[in-house]
């Protein structure tokens, strides 16, 4: 069993309250499906059990992150705030970062899931791993939660990997439709982590993720933002992997790759305006596995971030896990016909954005070549 799969029932018990899309219900907002709802991730498990692939993965139980591990990124005051909210009334730990009763312990377990995945891969228990972490983490900053994220699972896992295994070249790829602002800030001055965020331009947060933000001091050139225009589909995303991510990896030669895997660039996501299909997520995973095989002995970890279509997230995630494990199920994407009316090309305005990123980053990376 080459693929580890990490989750805990507690992840589904993190209570974000009732709401509609990303707002709390009340007034004229009738209760509906709140975006950061356990259903999307619970249904991933349900589909994997139903099609039989779950039995063929190596199930690994997560452990809670320790307080010292959380402090690798977060401030003591912020951690204490989350714990107080969790132990009392619940509430917002920042900007749309809802803490429910008991969420502190669940958030520790979510971060611990990312750490457990790193250990499993680094200790060769498995070749690769997928952690179905919840609550997500990539928006969380050192002193506040943002956008459903409480503790920054991936940032802490990367800092942990550096500390425990002595790594000095970790690549983090964030393909969530929203900019990974928290992870960016964690490593903005740090050349030991190459952070790449592919996201919808100015979706959320609306003041970050610019291509010109390349890092500072010794971290200059190690922060790569790729703000794609709304409507980008498989062709645009895959071009980014071929023209930017693979050449960057050739220059950087990572020792470990961590992917912040948000399935909200999908064509059916209510909080994104992109057009990636389940097949597209599978191909993106395949390209990342090729990079991992070439540079870091296949060591790659996926941590679940966003994805808010209860119907489609399970099928997108299944394609990722099928690709990681090499196990093909009989599951056919039942929604693919809905994407057939949208021609999937690399459009000129998408190409222009990719070239802009290449031009900016070419100052630091010799392998990048402008598309003609």
Automatic annotation (TrEMBL):
InterPro entries: HDACs (IPR000286), His_deacetylse_dom (IPR023801), His_deacetylse_dom_sf (IPR037138), Ureohydrolase_dom_sf (IPR023696). This is Class II histone deacetylase. It comes from the Bacteria. One of its GO terms (biological process) is epigenetic regulation of gene expression. One of its GO terms (molecular function) is histone deacetylase activity. One of its GO terms (cellular component) is cytoplasm. PANTHER family: HISTONE DEACETYLASE DOMAIN-CONTAINING PROTEIN (PTHR10625:SF31), HISTONE DEACETYLASE HDAC1-RELATED (PTHR10625). SUPFAM superfamilies: Arginase/deacetylase (SSF52768). Belongs to the histone deacetylase family. Residues 38-322 form the Histone deacetylase domain. Pfam families: Hist_deacetyl.
């Amino acid at each position: 069993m080459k693929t580890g799969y990490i989750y805990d029932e507690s992840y589904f018990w993190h209570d974000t309250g009732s709401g509609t899309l990303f707002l709390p219900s009340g007034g004229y907002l009738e209760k509906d499906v709140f975006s950061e709802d356990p259903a999307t991730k619970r249904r991933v498990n349900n589909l994997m059990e139903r099609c039989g692939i779950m039995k063929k993965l190596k199930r690994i139980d997560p452990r809670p992150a320790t307080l010292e591990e959380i402090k690798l990124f977060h401030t003591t005051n912020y951690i204490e705030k989350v714990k107080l909210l969790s132990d009392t009334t619940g509430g917002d730990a920042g900007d749309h970062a809802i803490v429910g009763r008991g969420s502190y312990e669940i958030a520790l377990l979510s971060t611990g899931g990312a750490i457990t995945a790193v250990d499993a891969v680094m200790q060769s228990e498995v070749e690769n791993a997928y952690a179905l972490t919840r609550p997500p983490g990539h928006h969380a900053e050192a002193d506040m939660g943002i956008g459903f994220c409480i503790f920054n699972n991936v940032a802490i896992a990367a800092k942990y990997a550096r500390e425990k295994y002595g790594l000095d070249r970790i690549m983090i790829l964030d393909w969530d439709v929203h900019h990974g602002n928290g992870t960016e800030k964690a490593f903005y001055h740090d050349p030991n982590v190459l952070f790449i965020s592919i996201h919808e331009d100015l979706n959320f947060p609306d003041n970050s993720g610019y291509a010109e933000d390349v890092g500072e001091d010794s971290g200059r050139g190690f922060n790569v933002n790729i703000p794609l225009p709304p409507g980008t589909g498989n062709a645009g995303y895959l071009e980014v992997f071929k023209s930017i991510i693979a050449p960057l990896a050739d220059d950087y030669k990572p020792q470990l790759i961590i992917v912040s895997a948000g399935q909200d660039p999908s064509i059916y996501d209510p909080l994104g305006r992109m057009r990636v299909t389940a097949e597209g997520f599978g191909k993106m995973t395949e390209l990342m596995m090729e990079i991992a095989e070439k540079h870091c002995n296949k060591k790659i970890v996926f941590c679940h971030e966003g994805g808010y279509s209860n119907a489609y997230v399970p099928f997108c995630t299944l394609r990722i896990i099928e690709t990681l494990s090499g196990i093909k199920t009989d599951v056919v994407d039942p929604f693919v016909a809905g994407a057939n009316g949208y021609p999937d090309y690399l459009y000129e305005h998408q190409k222009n954005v990719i070239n802009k990123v290449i031009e900016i980053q070419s100052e630091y990376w010799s392998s990048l070549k402008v598309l003609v």
